[in-house]
Amino acid sequence: MTSAQVRDLTYGREELRPPGVSRRSAMPRQGRPRADRSEAPAREPGGHSEIVLRPGPESVKAARDFTAETLHAWGLDGLIQEAMIIASELVTNAIKHGTCLAPPTADLARVELAWQRYASRVICVVTDGSSRQPVLAQADMGAESGRGLQVVHALAAAWGWMVLGAREKAVWAAMLLP
């Protein structure tokens, strides 16, 4: 996922593109979502794990649980708390802003959460059915929401986004390994 980022879409200090990774190969797509709230997580060798979520409040908890389980399986317990916050914020944004135009039964009304592990970092990638860009804005101090990307920006080593198609984008956040 990070290989397709260009500097103006990447927020952070580090270059995160692994050599030789192509635009589409970095985010494999797996099957179509089932009718229940999420597909069974797909775990592949080489540090990739993903889940498909139906938009809804229960999906944010499922994203946190999936993140904790994935990072624990990779022996990265020290990153779990911050990673759960990042995944929670990105999934919440994807549900709130990325699936709002699609009917609940449409394929675009789904959110995919993937974790990718590399030698020096793990990357959270959230894909939704909208090409609208995420906006990192200063939240109004009196507002009840609007701070999600500020939180991601504060916790991640870098983050960014890219349009994958006419009606799809991916937002990612990278955390450096201890």
Can you put this structure into words, describing what you see?
The protein has 178 residues and is of the alpha+beta class. 25% of the residues lie in helices and 25% in strands. The chain has one domain (2-11, 55-137, 145-176): Heat Shock Protein 90, CATH 3.30.565.10. The chain contains three helices and seven strands. It has a seven-stranded antiparallel beta sheet, covered by helices on one side. Strand 6 and strand 7 (168-176) form a beta hairpin. It is globular, with a radius of gyration of 15 Å.
Short summary of the structure?
This protein is an alpha+beta fold. The protein has a single domain (about 1-10, about 55-135, about 145-175), classed as Heat Shock Protein 90 (2-Layer Sandwich). Helices cover about 25% and strands about 25% of the residues.
Mean pLDDT across all amino acids: 76
Order of helix and strand elements from N to C terminus: EEEHHEEHEE
The name of the CATH architecture is 2-Layer Sandwich
- The share of residues in extended strands comes to 15-25%
Q: Structural class per helix/strand content?
A: alpha+beta
CATH fold field value = Heat Shock Protein 90
Helix amount, in percent? 10-25%
Distance between the termini: 22 Å
- Strand numbers in spatial order across the main sheet: 1-6-7-5-4-3-2
Please indicate the count of domains. 1
Layout of strands and helices, then pairs:
Layout: E1 10-12, E2 42-44, E3 48-53, H1 57-73, H2 80-98, E4 111-117, E5 121-128, H3 148-155, E6 158-165, E7 168-176
Antiparallel strand pairs: 1-6, 2-3, 3-4, 4-5, 5-7, 6-7
Helix pairs in contact: 1-2, 2-3
